[in-house]
Amino acid sequence: MTTLAKVERTKSSKAKRRDRIARWIITAGGILVIASVIAIVVLIVGVTLPLFLPARASQIAEATLPESVPAERILAVGIDLGIGDRHLVAHLVEEDGQVRFLDIPFDGSAARLVGEERILPPSLGKGGVVPPRVPEEGEKRNGDPPAGLGEPIGPQRVGEQGVVSAESPEQVEPTASSPVALRAVEHFDGALYTLLWEDGSAALVEIEVTTAFDASGIRSVHHQVHRRAALAAEDADRDARRAIVRVAPDGTVTCSRLLPDNTLSVVREEVRTSLFGDEERIARRLVLRERIPGTITALSMDRQGSILYAGTDNGCLVYWRFGAAGDVVEHDVIPAFPDERTVTALSVVFGDMSLAVGDATGGLSTWFFVRGEGGNKLRPIHTLRAHEDAVREIFPTRRRKTLLSASGGGQIHLDYPTSRRHLLSLDAPDALAAIAFSTRGDAVAALDEAGTLHVWRIENPHPEISLPALFGRVHYEGYPEPDFVWQSIGGDDFEPKYSLTPLLFGTLKGTFYAMLLAVPLALFAAVYTSHFTTPGFRRAIKPVVELMAAIPSVVVGFLAALWLAPLLERWVLSVFLSFATVPLCFVAFLTFWQGVRRLDWAKRVENGYEFVALLPVVFGGLLLAAWLTAPLEGWLFGGDFRQWLFDFMEMRYDQRNSMVIAFALGFAVIPIIFSISEDSLSNVPHSLSAASLAMGASRWQTLWRVVLPSASPGIFAAIMIGFGRAVGETMIVLMATGNTPIIDWSPFNGMRTLSANIAQEIPEAPHGGTLYRILFLCAVLLFTLTFLLNTAAELVRQHLRKQYGRF
Questions:
Q1: Do the Cβ atoms of 339 and 282 come closer than 8 Å?
Q2: Phi, psi torsion values for 390, nearest 5 degrees
Q3: d(CA 698, CA 533)
């Protein structure tokens, strides 16, 4: 007896030990699963967060100019950041046409002169650029560059101690100096300048600065001035106050000069090539003086030279559009500001479609042409952060639509017009002599009147992103009104559009149509299988339905795209007619069945084999719909249902549409809903249904009043799991829809879902870029959507269990 007790105690201790081990394994596994989910969430959220971080500016240099470069002679400043970790190069355009290149250290010491070039008026010099004057023997001035800068200028190699060597320059006319000074400089962007000399001649120049490091680590600074276009002045243009020069890709040069009498002189030089390859320049001069309501205070022109904008002192905007022949094809005056505030600055935004307007009250806004009933009209679109003083200058970038604006009081703002996002503000000196914005938009330079150059590095990786831009209506260029738009790729001047609203809508739309088909079929099949058919048929049919879930979604999507979509396009009217013909055939069959159900063979059919009699009825209804399609289409829809949709309903029929998704995605969801619902219905205690039948209730009354309420928690869970499966499906919606990110409930067009968008866009998304992070944001939204759905489903399920637990 003692031995038996010992054996029992040994077995009990082993069982307890196994229970403890199992409990620890299960606990560790659960913790590991939870930790994995949390790690995934932290990962995707961490990649997404930089989208919403504000732009940052850090002052990296504050250097004084050499004594030989007086600040009062400087007309424009340019900056180039990207030449190493310790130095940057600035260039200064002086009033005598001299361009000086300064090496700016980051340690706060004085700037070093590393090169200079002289730009001549078009009337002097072949190349328009000459080397500086060579100092006399023994002559030495304070602030002169190190030895070697008196040599013919060219690409310079600059080390830590100054110039190391110089390479040979381009051949230029050996003119030592220019007798004509600059009257005005128009800083187009970080590298392009329009120069207006006192004799009225104008030129478009590009200042190029590049750097490289050799094997020994010595940094080479290469600088060069390229003259893109030059136009001599006629007698009437010699007193011009301002000038703008643009060169189109086809070589057409457009020069606009503002004359003292408030007129505009426009010269267009067009390059024509003969059949023999000879080039001929044809110049055309226009004088614009009509319909200018006030004194012109600001000018701007697009890169093509096709539209000239002017702002006046009484708050008007005037524009002229030039045709291919150089004549004015469109001209209009827009009263921009009812209070007649002065327009102080104009600049064409990157892409040549928007115009940035600054005024005397510090306001900053963007305008572009909007198509309306009267044609394209220039309209105000976005209002940006205002300055405290009058806007002095506006600088665009070459790569994005970011705008840098500066006021007379020294305020510098960085804004992104489309998202209406104010990126940052800089505290610059009050007395500003010149401002510069780098070509890449990564640096800002401000020169004060005391001769100190202040340089900030700009970290602004995602300026186009904001919550209104992601989820609200945005008025994009070329659109008649604000809209939800997703378009991530385009041409060189393309502005990406990252509205996630069409993707969220497409996800819900595809899920809605799939559930609209899947839920009724799956629930009716589960009810019939669990309570009406024979046990043998149930054992046979349930594994077959569950096997549908094993079919790869890519196979379903492939069949839906290449087989179902063309078939549905051909028989689309038959599908809609079947919604009427199948019920009619069913009602007719029931009427017939009432007369024969008393027969013995009919009673056997009703005892679990109803589907045998109903399948021919369903097929008969489908055949009747197909037979009626041709005559009804010719009688009601003029022989073409799809064309009728477009003409009268303004609905376009796409081959890969929501109806295809309803069948394909519904096919993938049906097994999940059917299996869980059938288990829930079958697990309702038989005693409940038996008691209901014993009380005189029919089978349908028992099912409706007893079985379904008792199984409702499981049925609801099945529907929500199927909903989550439809929300997260990727391959079916990627292959079976047109992937068009539109907001339209029509069943005749497609959609783009969040999951399909990730699969389609991720191969083209640069790592760490804006699109890359937005795709991770799509993943965050998917996770959040499924989490909220599952949480709500669990709350409803628990409520149903409490309510019907008494059964």
A1: no
A2: -60, 140
A3: 16
Q: How far apart are CA 300 and CA 217, in angstroms?
A: 43
Distances (CA, A) of 219 to 60, 88, 92, 215: 19, 11, 21, 10
* 336 and 347 Cβ atoms separated by less than 8 Å: no
Distance from C-alpha of 94 to C-alpha of 119, rounded to nearest angstrom? 10
Count of C-beta atoms within a 10 Å radius of residue 67 = 12
**What are 670-688's pLDDT values in tens digits?**
999 999 888 888 888 888 8
Confidence band of 219 (pLDDT split at 50, 70, 90): low
Amino acid at 194: T
Angstrom distances, CA of residue 387 to CA of 59, 77, 330, 361, 433:
21, 22, 33, 8, 18
Q: Report the DSSP pairing between strands 192-197 and 74-80.
A: unpaired
Please state, as a whole number, how many other Cβ atoms lie within 10 Å of the Cβ of residue 579.
Answer: 10
Name the residue type at position 685: P
pTM over 0.70: yes
Please name which of 456, 452, 497, 454 lies closest in space to residue 477, comparing C-alpha atoms.
497
Q: Which residues make Cβ contacts (< 8 Å) with residue 130, sequence separation at least 6?
A: 117, 118, 120, 172, 173, 174, 175, 176, 177, 178
| Residue-level length of the chain | 807
Q: Residue 659: CB partners within 8 Å, gap ≥ 6?
A: 513, 568, 572, 575, 747, 748
Joined together, the tokens standing for residue 688 give 């409940």
Distance CA 531, CA 519 (A): 18
Distance CA 266, CA 310 (A): 13
Three-state DSSP state, 222: strand
Answer positive or negative: Cα dihedral of 581, 583, 589, 592. Answer: negative
| Cβ-based neighbour number of residue 665 at 10 Å | 30
- Give the pair of three-digit tokens for residue 48: 């997404």
Max alpha carbon distance in the chain (Å)? 130
Residue 328's H or E segment, with its range, is strand 328-335
For the chain, the distance separating the N- and C-terminal CA atoms, rounded to the nearest angstrom, is 48
Spatial distance between the Cα atoms of 622 and 578, rounded to a whole number of angstroms: 6
C-beta pairs of 106-109 under 8 Å, 24+ apart in sequence: 106/60, 106/61, 108/61, 108/62, 108/63, 109/63
The DSSP result for 703-751, as a single string, is: IIIIIHHHHHHHHHHHHHHHHHHHHH--HHHHHHS---------TTS--
Asked if residue 329 lies in contact with residue 271, where contact means CB atoms within 8 angstroms, the answer is: no
> Alpha carbon of 29 to those of 23, 26, 208, 677: distances in Å?
10, 5, 61, 29
Query: Sign of the CA dihedral 282, 287, 291, 297?
Result: positive
* Continuous H helices in 571-707: 572-596, 600-606, 610-636, 641-648, 658-682, 686-694, 699-702
Query: Look-up: residue for tokens 């038959």?
Result: 574
How far is the C-alpha of 37 from the C-alpha of 39, rounded, in Å?
5
DSSP 109: -
Contact (CB, 8 A) for 231 and 122? yes
Mean pLDDT of the chain: 82
* Segment (H or E) for 556: helix 553-559
Spatial contact of 71 and 450, defined as CB atoms under 8 Å apart: yes
pLDDT in tens, 490-533: 666 678 899 999 999 999 999 999 999 999 999 988 888 888 77
Residue range 736-769, pLDDT digits in tens:
888 888 898 888 888 899 999 999 898 888 888 8
Tokens representing 211 are: 């750097």
What letter would DSSP give residue 474?
Answer: B
| Residue type at 404 in one-letter notation | L
What are 36's two structure tokens?
């994995």
CB 426 within 8 A of CB 410: no
Per DSSP, 326 falls in state: S
